[in-house]
């Protein structure tokens, strides 16, 4: 007769494997490669402070001309809120199957690994783009205000002005992308560089239109990035967080901020009879640092 699994050991392993799996996976979200600034260990709302000069230089004269000159501070607040994924793990469901399989990791570690992957995939696909925070919500789309939501609110608040492109199609995508690129301020084009974030739908239309216009494909450079013709430091960046949106977001690296709390990314496990009750938790929040370092179009 097969020996029953040691549930206490399995419970301990859930706790043991849980934290490191999540902390490791957070660092592998590839957000840095996409130009996001990732802030960890956020335990309270954090002001993202922008320092600006007021006034400006003028021709010399002996008298004082301090009126209207100086510095000003403005803040965007990054708030990180907890999320969770509750599930029960019944080892008896896996008797004579996965309990008997010997692999590189124990079967419970494999289960946690899959939960971790799909947890982060849900945040990427449903939260970081079109998410809208709702404390009473029940899905990943309710965890935080994503960047598409923040951009739309900034337009309403008057912090961003849309550049009119109209609907993007496979017949005009190159023109529309270049319209946004040309609206980018000179300091971004010359000094900082910028990337235009778009959905994969828009990216595919751009590729189709580019090939039709030039009779050759839109190819990445040696660095794997897709440089926009005529813009030495401008790149087209397809991003899964954009979903099927036609919104174009041109911005500098580190302007889009994702916050979490590495000290609180954990798994809590407890026993009920032979059932292991598991709660996975991950804090998440999004914010934009500087609206002056951003150009958007008029499509949602």
List the helices and strands and how they pair.
Blueprint: H1 7-27, E1 37-39, E2 46-54, E3 70-78, E4 84-89, H2 107-127, H3 147-157, E5 162-163, H4 173-183, H5 186-192, E6 194-198, H6 200-214, E7 226-227, E8 234-238, E9 249-251, E10 256-259, E11 266-272, E12 275-281, E13 285-288, E14 294-297
Parallel strand pairs: 1-10, 5-14, 6-8
Antiparallel strand pairs: 2-3, 4-12, 6-9, 7-8, 9-14, 10-13, 11-12
Helix pairs in contact: 1-2
Summarize this structure as a short list of keywords or feature phrases.
14 strands, disordered N terminus, 6 helices, 23% strand, six-stranded mixed sheet, alpha+beta, three-stranded mixed sheet, 300 residues
Q: What percentage of the residues does DSSP assign to strands (E)?
A: 15-25%
- Helix count, DSSP H or I runs of 4 or more residues: 6
Helix and strand content put the structural class at alpha+beta
Distance between the termini: 61 Å
Shape: globular
Round the mean pLDDT to the nearest integer and report it.
88
> How many strands, what sense, and barrel or not for the largest sheet?
6 strands, mixed
The whole-angstrom Rg is: 24 Å
Number of separate structural domains: 2
The ordered H/E elements are: HEEEEHHEHHEHEEEEEEEE
Unreliable stretches covering 5 or more consecutive residues: 1-5
Count of DSSP strands: 14
